[in-house]
Design a protein that fits this description.
8 strands; SH3 type barrels; 3 helices; 2 domains; six-stranded antiparallel β-sheet; alpha+beta; about 190 residues; about 40% helix; flat; two-stranded antiparallel ribbon; single chain
Length: about 190
């Protein structure tokens, strides 16, 4: 029973510490509220227990009641898409290289797809590799130019963060008969 108490305390402290870290003064946060479905981006000025006071990016002050907060996110910096651009560009370039290598005409009669198989496939691989690398480099350059804000969700202790879902289990055992139980699962 003592281990259950320790587990509960660990869960409570982890939730409280994540909320406390999220509300450090001067930190950039994004708040989404439920009644008007509004989203605010600003810096934490004060963090009393009943509200969150922000200085918005347009220099206005805003006080958001905690019961209206649906989603609270922390700013994590800018994100680029270099890796995704490289893989997309490389894949398109390799597919183009394969199509170009296999569609090169040779005089083989009716079945020209596998004509000169060894030499043709070697050149197709070379063309696919070079075009994949070149297009991958172009894709990586384009991905480096695209920058977006990256946000991390902060867990909240408000009731709006709790999700309830019904649970139903029906089991049949030859020895004990049928078993049916119904419950509710709560997730934070």
């Amino acid at each position: 029973m003592h281990w259950l108490f320790r587990l509960c305390m660990l869960l409570v402290l982890s939730v409280v510490s994540s909320v406390a870290v999220a509300q450090s003064l001067g930190e950039r946060v994004r708040v989404t509220t439920s009644p008007p479905d509004a989203r605010f981006d600003g810096y934490v000025q004060e963090s009393p227990s009943d509200s969150l006071q922000l200085r918005l990016t347009n220099s206005n002050l805003l006080s958001v009641p905690r019961e209206d907060i649906v989603l609270l996110e922390r700013y994590m910096g800018k994100r680029t898409y270099k890796k995704r651009g490289f893989f997309i560009g490389g894949g398109v370039g390799a597919a183009f290289g394969i199509a170009a290598g296999l569609s090169a005409e040779e005089d083989c009669g009716l079945i020209s797809f596998f004509c000169g198989t060894q030499e043709r496939l070697a050149w197709t691989a070379v063309i696919a590799g070079y075009s994949g690398l070149i297009c991958g480099a172009v894709g990586m350059a384009v991905g480096a130019v695209i920058k977006r804000d990256q946000w991390e969700k902060i867990s909240s202790t408000s009731a709006s963060g709790i999700r309830l879902s019904p649970m139903l289990n029906v089991a049949y055992s030859e020895h004990s008969g049928q078993t049916l139980w119904v419950g509710i699962r709560a997730r934070l």
